[in-house]
Write a structure and sequence with these properties.
Layout (H helix, E strand, L loop, with lengths): L1 H22 L7 H11 L2 E2 L5 H5 L6 H9 L8 H4 L5 H7 L3 E2 L4
Parallel strand pairs: 1-2
Length: 103
């Protein structure tokens, strides 16, 4: 009789432990979290950037770089849209790479 109770107890414990084991996941560090910090330090200030630095941004060529310089100073980076300096698609391409610092 003891052997049958032991087998039943063992079988029941497997039913209890199996869902807990199936739900465990391994946690991997997100590579974006470590890469975000250097990117934040590399923001380009549109109020003081040179024409060459602005020209290096995606979808910003020589003419748009000149327009950005001519429209200075900016209170915020969204002034590029509000003042109609660049189109929305160009702003979307650079908005995570720029900042408008105040003096």
């Amino acid at each position: 009789m003891r052997m049958s109770q032991l087998i039943v107890a063992l079988a029941l414990s497997m039913f209890i432990a199996a869902p807990a084991i199936a739900q465990t996941t391994t946690v991997k560090p997100a590579p974006a979290a470590t890469a975000a910090k250097p990117a934040a330090a590399a923001l380009l200030d549109i109020n003081s950037a040179s024409k060459a630095e602005l020209d290096a941004l995606p979808q910003i060529g020589s003419a748009r770089a000149d327009a950005i310089i001519k429209g200075r100073p900016y209170k915020g980076k969204d002034d590029l849209i509000n003042k109609k300096i660049i189109p929305q698609n160009a702003y979307d391409a650079i908005k995570d790479k720029i900042i408008a610092k105040q003096k």
